């Protein structure tokens, strides 16, 4: 695994901070917030792009591509894969992304209106396209096999992992990098989210602004970051003596078919994706030991997700622990599900559930076990990770502890 996050640019630093309940959310630095009521973003704090990317290449990439390439480099470093001995045609990448190069679009629009169209950067188009994160990872690491980009808003990171696993399942590849990335904080993006009242407007310290499932939650905190899992067929992983961290055992995707930005009010779409992921894993809801929630800190999303969990798990919903990684890192949109997948796998490996911080006031509509404010030790073998995006696009994945038969 590799990750660049608001809590650092290594999986270990990220995970240790999550377990401690440390927030990576701070004052706005990437855009001028003075005209907006929402002023607290979570930005990845890292020098990794400069470390892993040739400076000339980096200048030709938007930030979202840089984060993806950095996460891929860290994942390869962690995996022990020797690229020179692999069949490059059997290696691929599937990346989830929401916005592409939003800040680069804004910068070049300013250039267009001030100086004219012929002064726009010659790299503008290849920088902003959402597929360029996967393309740059493929190009720089020589991955010539199955490659794709998933653009399903906040579900994209989870769907990137699920689609990578599907490519291996059907025999299209032996190794696929699956994950998601986002780096879209800019004036234009903040304006768009503010006018639909999606962002937190609370006059509280930045680290307190993301409050999933709390009665006083009032919107999400925008974030940037990327994470990549190196997925392999079992045969390939065993053949090279890999340390297998976990198994992707189930995957489900659904659509609310309801509204452009609001979730289906009865949670039916989210429930379908959860149910199908669990069924795909050959499990029952009672087999799930922990749920990593989408948990955005928006009033409607958290209520609807709670309702969907109750629909799938019945009375068992009150027994399964749930937590929201976004309480500490904010919402990285297309990168969120991948960042949360890293947390899920560390939960399985280390036997500890990170908390949902800033949970202070109970909401009668959100009455499940959200592991409030303090990490909890537990034996966790199976995890369900939820991601729900604008447009009613839902993706869930089940991770399981690996046991060699």
Descriptive report:
The chain is of the alpha/beta class and 405 residues long. It folds into two domains: 2-239, Peroxisomal Thiolase, Chain A, domain 1, CATH 3.40.47; 247-400, Peroxisomal Thiolase, Chain A, domain 1. Helices cover 35% and strands 16% of the residues. The protein has 14 helices and twelve strands. The strands form three sheets. It has a five-stranded mixed beta sheet, with helices on both faces. Helix 12 links the parallel strand 7 and strand 8. Helix 4 (63-79) packs across helix 7 (132-141) and helix 11 (268-280) packs across helix 12 (299-313). The longest helix is centred in the N-terminal third of the chain and has 17 residues, at 63-79. The two termini are 24 Å apart. The model has no long low-confidence stretch (mean pLDDT 95). The active site is at 154 (for beta-ketoacyl synthase activity). Keywords: Acyltransferase, Fatty acid biosynthesis, Fatty acid metabolism, Lipid biosynthesis, Lipid metabolism, Transferase. One of its GO terms (molecular function) is 3-oxoacyl-[acyl-carrier-protein] synthase activity.
């Amino acid at each position: 695994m590799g990750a660049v996050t608001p809590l650092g640019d290594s999986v270990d630093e990220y995970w240790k901070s999550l377990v401690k309940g440390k927030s990576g959310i701070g004052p706005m630095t990437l855009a001028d917030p003075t005209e907006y009521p929402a002023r607290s973003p979570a930005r990845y704090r890292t020098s990794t792009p400069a470390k892993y990317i040739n400076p000339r290449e980096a200048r030709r990439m938007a930030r979202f591509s840089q984060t993806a390439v950095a996460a891929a480099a860290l994942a390869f470093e962690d995996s022990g894969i020797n690229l020179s001995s692999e069949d490059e045609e059997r290696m691929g990448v599937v990346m989830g992304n929401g916005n592409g190069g939003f800040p680069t679009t804004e910068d070049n629009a300013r250039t267009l209106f001030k100086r004219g169209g012929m002064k726009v950067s010659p790299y503008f188009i290849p920088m902003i396209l959402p597929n360029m994160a996967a393309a740059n990872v493929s190009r720089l690491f020589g991955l010539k096999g199955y490659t794709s980009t998933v653009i399903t808003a906040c579900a994209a990171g989870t769907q990137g992992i699920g689609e990578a696993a599907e490519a291996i399942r059907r025999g299209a590849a032996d190794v696929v990098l699956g994950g998601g990335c986002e780096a879209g904080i800019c004036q234009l993006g903040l304006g768009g989210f503010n006018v639909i009242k999606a962002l937190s407007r609370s006059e509280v310290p930045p680290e307190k602004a993301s409050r999933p499932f709390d009665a006083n939650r009032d919107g999400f905190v925008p974030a940037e970051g990327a994470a990549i899992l190196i997925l392999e067929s079992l045969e390939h992983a065993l053949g090279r003596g890999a340390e297998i961290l976990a198994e992707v055992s189930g995957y489900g995707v659904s659509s609310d078919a309801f509204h452009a930005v609001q979730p289906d009010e009865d949670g039916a779409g989210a429930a379908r994706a959860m149910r199908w992921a669990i069924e795909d894993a050959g499990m029952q809801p009672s087999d799930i030991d922990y749920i990593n929630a989408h948990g955005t800190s928006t009033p409607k999303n958290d209520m609807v997700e709670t309702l969907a969990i109750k629909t799938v798990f019945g009375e068992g919903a009150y027994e399964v622990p749930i937590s929201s990684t976004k309480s500490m890192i904010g919402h990285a949109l297309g990168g969120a599900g991948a960042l949360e997948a890293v947390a899920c796998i560390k939960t399985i490996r280390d036997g500890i559930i990170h908390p949902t911080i800033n949970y202070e006031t109970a909401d009668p509509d959100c009455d499940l076990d959200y592991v409030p404010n303090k990490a909890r030790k537990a034996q966790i073998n199976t995890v369900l990770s939820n991601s729900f995006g604008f447009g009613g696009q839902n993706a869930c994945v089940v991770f399981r502890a690996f046991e060699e038969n």
